[in-house]
Each structure stands twice: as structure tokens, then as C-alpha cells.
Amino acid sequence: MALELDLIVQILLRERLRVAALASAITRDVHAADDIFQQVVLEALESRAQFRSPDHVLAWALRTARHRAVDCARSRRLHLLPDEILEALEARWAEPVGDSISDRGEALHGCLGQLTPSARELLQMRYAERLPVAEVAARLSRTVDAVYQMLSRIHRALRECVERKLPVGNGPPNAEGVRS
């Protein structure tokens, strides 16, 4: 029996980070990876009759994202990773990890929304636009050291916010490898 449409959508949204990460690793472009994820969702909805289990949806989504990402990379004339590396990436992302990745992603998303507009602008320039720190500093009329300090503070604030939002036992491992 085929899976319900709502369940397929829930699975894909829960696993968005994994699917997009695989696509991003191949295309080296987070925007292209987001586009690929959207294509995968649309294709999954059109092909929903073939899915028999949640694991099948994830495996199919990862394989489809990989193929779309390879096509995108080829069209941009990027040097592709060897097939054995792509197989290893796909296998690694297909491994069950519980809810920790999606929980951390949701927590991070919420924490990003709590940042000041200037902090979000700084992150946008540095990571979404991929500007070098020197260029970010010039745009903000700050020194390079000041930008690094601001980034460090933002990273620390995001880490602390995510850790507060996660249930006990789902935080990062400490020095002994034990989760908080």
C-alpha cells in the first residue's frame, strides 16, 4: 500500500537538511541545493504511488537529489567528485540518526529568527553571499578583526540558543563524548 501524501511531505520536510546537504556537497551552491530539494519534493509528490515505507522515501529522495545535483554540476562545468565518494556520501546521509539533525536544524532556524537585523545581515553577507571577511568589513566600515569578533559572538549566541532549545540528551557531546 502506498504512503499517504501527508506522510511523504512530513518525511521530506524532516529530512530537508540531509537532502539539501547532499545536493550542496555536489553543487557547492546552497541556493542550487534548495532548488534541487524543491524539485525532489515535486517529483516525490508526482511519484507518491511508488513509496511503500518512510525509509524508501528518504532513499529515493537522496538518490534523486544526487542525480539532479550531478546534472547541475555538469551544466556548470564543475569538477565532480568520484562516484565512490558520491556513493559514500549518499550512504552516510541515508543512515538513521534519530531526530537530532532535524531537531537541531529547527532549533537553529528559530534562533536565527531571534537575531538582530544587523546580525542577520552580517551572516547573509558572509555565508549566503560568500563574501570574504575583508569585503564584509569594508561594506560595514569595520576592521577585519571587528567582523571576526562579531561573527564569533553570533556563533556563540546561536550555539547557546540551540542548546537551550534542545531537550536534555540531545545536545552536543562534551569532552568525554557524553551528550548533555
TrEMBL record:
GO terms for molecular function: DNA binding; sigma factor activity. Keywords: Sigma factor, Transcription, Transcription regulation. It comes from the Bacteria. Gene3D superfamilies: 1.10.1740.10, Winged helix-like DNA-binding domain superfamily/Winged helix DNA-binding domain (1.10.10.10). Residues 16-77 form the RNA polymerase sigma-70 region domain. Residues 106-154 form the RNA polymerase sigma factor 70 region 4 type domain. GO terms for biological process: DNA-templated transcription initiation. The keyword Transcription regulation applies. The keyword Nucleus does not apply. Belongs to the sigma-70 factor family. ECF subfamily. NCBIfam families: sigma70-ECF. This is RNA polymerase sigma-70 region 2 domain-containing protein. The lineage of its organism: Bacteria, Pseudomonadati, Planctomycetota, Planctomycetia, Gemmatales.
